[in-house]
Amino acid sequence: YDSGRDGYIDLMELKLMMEKLGAPQTHLGLKNMIKEVDEDFDGKLSFREFLLIFHKAAAGELEEDSGLLTLAKLSEIDVSIEGVKGAKNFFEAKVQALSSASKFEAEIKAEQDERKREEEERKHRRAAFRELKTVFTQ
């Protein structure tokens, strides 16, 4: 959900995430969700703060009507079972899956680089052929 790829989930990314999870929130609700776990008061969620949501949910520290509790319940991983390390591995796997889209871009770039290399090789062979041709035509 980190569409800005800056390592944080900001207000709009959180909004999109909650909508995709089927639990849309108001703008004020989203701000309150961030505020509830925003340890460094930067207005966005770091990975640590994101995990804090699940820790607080497991400890029963979230309000019943909290959007964060809804998020914790909609989560695909139960931190109380998996532990923080398991959750970290889960989210890293999610990031890896999302980056597979960039794998396609990398393949396209590799093909383009290969074409450039082949074209350079062709130019080099032509130049070598012309050089050889001049030797025989003298």
Automatic annotation (TrEMBL):
GO CC annotation, single: mitochondrial inner membrane
GO MF, one example: calcium ion binding
Coiled coil (UniProt feature): 101-128
InterPro entries cross-referenced by the UniProt entry: EF-hand-dom_pair, EF_hand_dom, EFHD1/2
Metal-binding keyword on record: yes
Domain EF-hand span(s) in chain numbering: 1-24, 25-60
Keywords: Calcium, Coiled coil, Metal-binding, Repeat
Domain of life per record: Eukaryota
Pfam families in UniProt: EF-hand_7
Name used for this protein in its record: EFHD1 protein
Species assigned in the record: Chionis minor (Black-faced sheathbill)
Taxonomic placement: Eukaryota, Metazoa, Chordata, Craniata, Vertebrata
